[in-house]
Amino acid sequence: MAKKTISVPAIFQKLFTPRHILRAAALAFYRLNPVASMLNPVMFMVWMGAVVVTVLTAYSLAFLGLGETRPSDRIFCISLTVWLWFTLWTANFSEALAEERGQATAVALRGTRRKILAKRIRSVAEAASPELVLSENLRKGDLLLIEPGDIIAADAEVVDGVASVDESAVTGESAPVIRQPGGPDALLVGGTRVLSDRLIARVRSEPGDSFLDKMISMVDGARRRRTPNEVALTIMLTAITVVLLLSCATIVPFSFYAAETSLRGAPVHVITAAAFLVCVIPTTIAGLLSTIGIAGMSKMMKANVIAMSGRAVEAAGDVDVLILDKTGTITVGNRQAIAFVPLRNVTVSELANAAAAASIADETPEGYSITRLARERYGISTDINSYKGAKFIAFSAHTRMSGIDFGGRQIRKGAMSAIAGWMKDQGAAMPPEAEQKAVSMARWGSTPLIVAENGRVLGMVELKDVVKTGIKERFNRLRQMGIRTVMLTGDNKYTAAAIAAEAGIDDYVGEVDPEDKLKIVRRLQAEGKRVAMTGDGTNDAPALAKADVAVAMGNGTQAAKEAGNMVDLDSNPTKLLDIIGIGKQILLTRGALTTFSICNDIAKYFSIIPAAFATTYPELSVLNVMHLSSPESAVLSTVIFNAVIIFIVMPVALHGVRFQGLSPMRLLRRNLIIYGGGGLVIPFALIKAIDVALGYLGVFS
Prior knowledge:
Calcium-transporting ATPase, cytoplasmic transduction domain A; 4 domains; 7-stranded mixed sheet
């Protein structure tokens, strides 16, 4: 059966309801105040222009009559005033609408955190008579009875039963997941619903410290700050605006001087000069710059990724090297034990017994699969009570082995290098037969784990990985974008090479430990690369803290989450590939709209310059290539276009430029043609259309 795809969570749907639009519209009006406008230097200049025109219009209405000559008649002044303020409002509205999208996430998450009745029991044997309590009264360690249709009242761990659970309300995973005792499949998330069968689970968090509480905290804590590229672009736009302001400041006095000395023509009116300034400064990109950044973080939330800052989202678009773990990222989930391979003079049963005993303290998925294989295929008991008085050696990423000491027996199971080191301490060496079998096993893509007892190698456990369907094509697209992929794994180099070749990975490093991961990240950054990686454990924290884009898994340790600058609530390591796509889309969107805005301004020169200055310098009429009907109509048409174009391109800022796995040069060429060419053509067409409409309505007749 084909696996269901992950759909957008219900809480993230219908964010742009009429209520959200009305709230964004009201917030846009509130931000017309000067304090809010000053946060955007370019739009503050528009605000100042609107104030000047408003004051002059009020003066004209209060002290001058209807006989005032053009271009300062009442219709022109009132229309110009309205459309200048509307330009400001549209810029504020686009940003407010993007913010509503993100704020709705936190509100929707809080809506799922409601009071739930839980069925608390004292023991598994007393499941028939549960006590009903509110979820807020549950404490860590309480036992819960959860039946079909029940909402899980708190984060818990399954201790008895097997059931399918719908987690879409919290994690966005549309396909139900199976929850059962033992391993990662035992974890239940509060707020999700049991679909079938009965579970008994133990509460594993105190009130206020649940997974959902942490999600809400991360959403609230994800404050958007301007990224370095955004700051640089803002500085450039501000510099352009200042230059144009200084130029416009000389227009009125110079036109009066020219009109008096040449004794021809009329001087430029202050209202016209203010309108000219507003139209030629880069208002389109300035009004949408914040919207692009906020929409980017909202896209991350929609993908169930909490970005701690806009800097992290933007950095994802500039990634040069992608560091990936093998298991769960490149391969399908966790490796599974498929066979016990004994050496000469060792029986399969003897090897299976030793491997199972050494895996009792191994709480990794691989450890569970070894004990399950020994139990199901060979009938070997894995009851921990059978090893009373034994000393268990838990698996760790540092030692890369687990084991047990009891009755004079020392059994270890782990990677070949780890067991070889342990045997060396015992005064023994790895037999050639074991090395040969391990190399052969690794070359066909399996992972060998060596099992040894009292310095004697008994054989090995074969673990098998399955490369995810379609992962090779995804890596090919990344390669086309100039991103190099590196796989890090604790497996031996032969297994790493086989998986890397099958998946289409550019490079790989086998038998790595946490210190190696940090060294690799540092080395790549020293080469001038921007590095992205994922991690879920405390041992990943140093490398995550150093990486430019660090995605911590939602079910990972607190240390990993604090070290990362993003948290994937779905705990899906392959999400990093989507994060890079979102980051690149943000950069492409900003670049495309900047190109569009600059080309817009070039086109607007041909509409407003002849209108603004032809009265003083009739020779400039030759630039009126659009043959606009009158100076007043030309100025007002350009101002109207300046406001309307923000509305037209607002969907592009919110949804982003379509992202494809193309090379940077092909993307640049495509966007120059589409957005550069469109930025030149659209203003000529729309300004002329508005001019014709004003003439048809007889506004200036």
